[in-house]
């Protein structure tokens, strides 16, 4: 069964930090790239960061320099450390597992999302 469960969201003041966690079922975590996306009200879902199976990160411009993605393969968990948060970072943050089949087709599995609100 494919399952991704996020945690760690909440209310934080501007300039604060949060660490999001996503624990996935082993079948979807092992051997797949993992990512964090976010969706603000009225906006499309956008990429925040990706991490390869061997831990190589890639960041979207929106949070580059203010976020760190990491993964613990022993715990089937991916993390997103976010620093210097701004009100415009307010969104629902989603964990994703990206799989590629033999034909090269990419499929994305999503968690339920965790709300991050940056406000004073």
Secondary-structure topology with pairs:
Layout: E1 4-7, E2 10-12, E3 18-24, H1 26-29, E4 33-39, E5 46-51, E6 57-59, E7 67-72, E8 77-82, E9 91-100, E10 106-110, E11 114-118
Parallel strand pairs: 2-11
Antiparallel strand pairs: 1-3, 3-8, 4-5, 4-9, 5-6, 7-8, 9-10, 9-11
Fold and architecture overview:
By secondary structure, the protein is mainly beta. The protein is built from one helix and eleven strands, in the order E-E-E-H-E-E-E-E-E-E-E-E. The chain has one helix at 26-29, and strands at residues 4-7, 10-12, 18-24, 33-39, 46-51, 57-59, 67-72, 77-82, 91-100, 106-110, 114-118. The strands form two sheets. Strands 2, 4, 5, 6, 9, 10 and 11 form a seven-stranded mixed sheet that branches. A four-stranded antiparallel sheet has the order 1-3-8-7. Strand 4 (33-39) and strand 5 form a beta hairpin. The longest helix is centred in the first third of the chain and has 4 residues, at 26-29. The chain is globular and about 45 Å long. The relative contact order is 0.30. The model has no long low-confidence stretch (mean pLDDT 95).
Features:
120 residues, single chain, mainly beta, four-stranded antiparallel sheet, 1 helix
What's the quick description here?
The chain is mainly beta. It contains one helix and eleven strands, in the order βββαββββββββ.
């Amino acid at each position: 069964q494919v399952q991704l469960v996020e945690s760690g969201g909440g209310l934080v003041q501007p300039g604060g930090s949060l660490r999001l966690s996503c624990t996935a079922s082993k079948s979807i975590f092992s051997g797949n790239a993992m990512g964090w996306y976010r969706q603000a009200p009225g906006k499309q879902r956008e990429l925040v960061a990706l991490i390869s199976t061997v831990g190589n990160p890639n960041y979207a411009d929106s949070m580059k320099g203010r976020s760190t993605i990491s993964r613990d393969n022993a715990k089937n968990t991916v993390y997103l450390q976010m620093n210097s948060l701004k009100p415009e970072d307010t969104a629902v943050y989603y964990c994703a597992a990206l799989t590629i089949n033999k034909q090269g087709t990419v499929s994305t599995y999503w968690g339920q999302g965790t709300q991050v609100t940056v406000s004073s």
